[in-house]
Amino acid sequence: MTTSTSVFRGRAIVLALAGFLACGALPARSESFSFTSIGDLPGGSTFSRALAVSGNGQVVGGVSKSTVGVQAEATSWTKANGLVPLGDLAGGTFESYSYAVSNDGSVIVGIGSAADNYQAFRVNNGVMTAIPYAGTDYYSEARGVSANGNVIVGLGSSDDAVSAWRWTQATGTVSLGFVPGDSTSSAYAISADGSTIVGFSGTDYNQAMRYTSGGGMVSLGHLPGGTDSAAFGVSRDGSVVVGYSNTSATDYVAFRWDAATNQMVSLGDFAGGFVNSQANGVSGNGKIVVGYGMSDAGFDAFRWDPANGLQSLKGILNRVGLGPELNNWILVEAKGISDDGRSIVGYGFDPNGNTTGWIARNNLLADVNVDWKVDIADLVQVANLWLSTNPEGDANGDGIVNIQDITAIAEHWLEGAGGGGGGGSLNVTAVPEPSTLSLAAIASLAGAFAYRRRRSAAHNQ
Ligand SMILES: [Ca+2]
Ligand SMILES: [Ca+2]
Ligand SMILES: [Ca+2]
């Protein structure tokens, strides 16, 4: 074991050196992918967490510690302005957290410390106001907000029960009740379109729940063998829900549920360590899930999609050439993902060992399926969306899916796929040529496009 370990280490060092040299030879680093620390507010201890990202991927909500917010101060972050303190509700101690962000970032919701207790807040264009309690509640927190910022959900507590609530300007704060037979509930997310609210409901144990105005609050059940589950993320239209379920007394795993099958499916966990994974967020189209899993090394942020399965986010970021930025970071947990799946936020331990928030971004439009590499799967997706205006097939961002998107994919062929040894995607000499099989596939796809274009031309006459 010692021998193979040292051989492995030797190889790793050689590879790391090769990567370093390749990197140094590059004129500039690629802008296709980025990994950025959100930093820390001045004062207090050095600490931050990214807890949510806006639908458009530009605004990160979270928490840091500051001079006034020694315990915690709610924050927002943008690339242009960095980490910005959001203050706290009036009265009580000073402690606040941002938990969810609207599509354009103009509305941020969370929890603050008010005169009597902790209370849900809404920040609208920089101004923080308390969200009224529901009924006899004396404690509340906001956990989700619709894309337009008009619908906010969370949980509140009275002497009788903790229950999920929904707030709009028109209705005020209204309790959503429980799954029939249960006595507690909590709302943790709302779909971008505002139609669907998810969280959990329960008695001694919880069950993931999904609430719609037409169907009320419905249990999503558990994975086989499970007794305890909860939902933390929901897709744009409410049709995909993610969270965790146990499968035994000790094993907890991330799940993905979709309305089409009405089934919870396990997303698994990393090998090693306890069986302990959880899904926290899902892309707008329901296809990309983020959260955390556990390996021998401890907790690790994951990214999941149907084709690639459960992947270490740090592994992906290393593969696409962000090794230098990631140097010694541990990505403990991914907390949120943007609507287009290109921005993932979370927190971990930075190179100094401090808990710090981060944002990872994939700006490579040619990677239309957003799996952080440009390959045959992107060509297939373009083919499937041929001549549509669907942004998920638009590899060059011009609003139409056509032959120029094939060209864009060819120009970025195998970018992010690895082989650059950490040298970045501009290191074209390190990017393998498309294999014969891939070239044949491209040729046949090109043939299919020509056929479909002729057909479509004929239909238009
Ligand atoms: Ca600080
Ligand atoms: Ca791809
Ligand atoms: Ca296009």
Fold topology:
Blueprint: H1 2-25, E1 33-37, E2 48-53, E3 60-64, E4 73-78, E5 82-85, E6 97-101, E7 107-113, E8 118-124, E9 127-130, E10 139-145, E11 152-157, E12 162-168, E13 172-177, E14 184-190, E15 196-202, E16 206-212, E17 216-221, E18 229-234, E19 240-246, E20 252-258, E21 263-268, E22 278-282, E23 289-295, E24 298-305, E25 309-312, H2 313-319, H3 323-326, E26 330-337, E27 343-349, E28 355-362, H4 376-384, H5 403-411, H6 436-460
Antiparallel strand pairs: 1-28, 2-3, 3-4, 4-5, 6-7, 7-8, 8-9, 10-11, 11-12, 12-13, 14-15, 15-16, 16-17, 18-19, 19-20, 20-21, 22-23, 23-24, 24-25, 26-27, 27-28
Briefly say what this structure is.
By secondary structure, the chain is α+β, with helices and mostly antiparallel strands. It is 17% helix and 38% strand.
Features:
461 residues; alpha+beta; Type 1 dockerin domain; Methylamine Dehydrogenase, Chain H; 2 domains; 4-stranded antiparallel beta sheet; disordered N terminus; binds calcium ion
How would you explain this protein's 3D organization?
Helix 4 runs parallel beside helix 6 (436-460). The chain has two domains: 1-30 and 365-461, Dockerin domain (Type 1 dockerin domain), CATH 1.10.1330.10; 32-362, Methylamine Dehydrogenase, Chain H. Strand 24 (298-305) and strand 25 form a beta hairpin. The termini are far apart. With 461 residues, it is of the alpha+beta class. The strands form seven sheets. A four-stranded antiparallel β-sheet has the order 1-28-27-26, with helices on one face. A four-stranded antiparallel β-sheet has the order 2-3-4-5, with no helix packed on it. 17% of the residues lie in helices and 38% in strands. It is globular, with a radius of gyration of 23 Å. Bound molecules: calcium ion (CA) (3 copies). One calcium ion binds next to helix 5. Residues 40-41, 43-46, 64-66 line the site of one calcium ion.
